[in-house]
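Crash report, auto-generated. Payload:
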Amino acid sequence: MRAGELLGLLGPSGSGKTTLLRIIAGLDAPDRGRILFGGDDATGLPVQERAVGFVFQHYALFKHMSVADNIAYGLNARRRAERPAQAEIKRRVGDLLDLIRLSGFGDRYPSQLSGGQRQRVALARALAVEPRVLLLDEPFGALDAQVRKDLRRWLREIHNRTGQTTIFVTHDQDEALELSDRVAVLDHGRLEQIGTPDEVQENPVSATVLKFLGDSVEVEAIAEGGRVLVRGRETPVTAPAGVIGPVKLYVRPWQLQLVELDAAHLSGTVRSSYRSQGRQRIEVEEPGGLILAVEDSDGIRYAAGHPVGLRINGGHVFG
Amino acid sequence: MAATLAAAPAEAPAPRPARRFRRPSVLPGFGLSFGYTLACLGIVVLLPLAGLVVKASGLGFSGILRVATDPRVASALKLSFGVSLLSALVASVFGFLIAWVLTRYEFPGRKIVDAAVDLPFALPTAVAGIALASLYAPDGLIGAPLDRLGIQVAYTPLGVFVAMTFVGLPFAVRTVQPLIAEIDREIEEASATLGASRRATLLKVVLPPLIPAVLTGFALAFARGVGEYGSVIFIAGNLPYVSEIAPLLIVIKLSEFDYGGAAAIATIMLGISFLTLLAINLIQAWSRRRFGYV
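Recovered output after restart:
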């Protein structure tokens, strides 16, 4: 974890993302291993002294306090010697309300706010204590799609402005890829890969990472001296050194192209097709029973039952 | 997106829907059930109370005043209401602790303790009274050691206090228990991550939302204490001016065929109880508004 970066923890449910976040916060204890904050060992520190900001999926706002009191809570909870003067607290709360674009909402109670507004208040409350690291546990999980998108972009803006070191947990790959400086993909409590969104998408280290980052199609293939053959026809994919024999080739839908049958790696019949967001998505049924989804943008409509050929323009083979 | 968010402060609270006597509902039978409810309430609750007031008004205002200012009645009323308030207070504090322990901790026998809390509800009050009296009597199991310390419980106002706390406790426990069970652990964790000590978390985050429930428990325990008869009279000893409670005085008046006097004391008790419960309800309504939920 680098200072000032926005790190996305991505993984299927049950992969240990939230547990990791809670261990960093000190809400759960690790079985093994240590938590380091900039070289200081924080493993034994109680939650209160870790100086983390935690934002919960379900906001966890204090219902009996006004928005302003919620935000000021962390400052007021400090020991008297470290506590800023009331005027200073008020000023900071005002600044944070501006930051979350809820100026003038300070006297409201959480029950009078919408979900998105509540989550912004929760974020301001966590930022108020100037944490060393901000931890967001599926911060947008309880919100509807439109609010999610808005808040995502807004969080990115806030991060650009404040440079706050942030870790956030999500199971939504779009969210992680859009927001993060780097993405860490977890599975079964193990870190599979960490890298920039481009790195993990272009060079996934394992099938798990690849499958989790988006739709993919598995094709039976043969590896031979670094080349990968499908039905005896060569593909542009290269196999890792030492991989020989039958392998699984993972192909993204957009790496498949509809072509004439004689130039195709695969062939089948159209099962259904629909258009969404300017792209045509075609499901092709292979004789082997395999269903491939192909994306195509040339606007030709394919009737169900129409025979088509597919060309593989890219993909990944793992050792 | 910027536009959406910038527009946010313009959001006004939704206008309150116009109050309607009857809301549209998928369930039929509003007229029948409403009428039935009112009839029951009228016959079971309001009619006897009205009869009581009518009976007392036979004495006239000056007559009621004369009964109220009678030193024996006045001291009985003072004892009943004073000790009820005190015992409701103690029952609320200890009831809260019991409810907390029962919901927050898993320990062997928890279910049994939980069930035992209801016993004062279920026990015939006379049985409770006799049990308490024999326990706290100067030669009783608890009374004897206390007696040696110079503390006498039975046949004093302290005895009245013990009996009233006993019967009021289940109310205090059962009203706060469900709310403690519902406390969101994340709220406590949020407070801790913000640097608040455990004590601050408890005092500022956990307790305030429970106040309305504690008040309800207090009101119920108080009401039960004021009206309690059976479990108190055995341990109280019923010395006039010292440990004689108002309900007992009503029974005495009745046995002397002084129906007017009995009704007058009852009416005074009704009035004071009503005012006290009204006050508690107003505090509750205020705290509900203050804490922003229903």
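Post-recovery validation: The longest strand of chain A covers residues 266-276.
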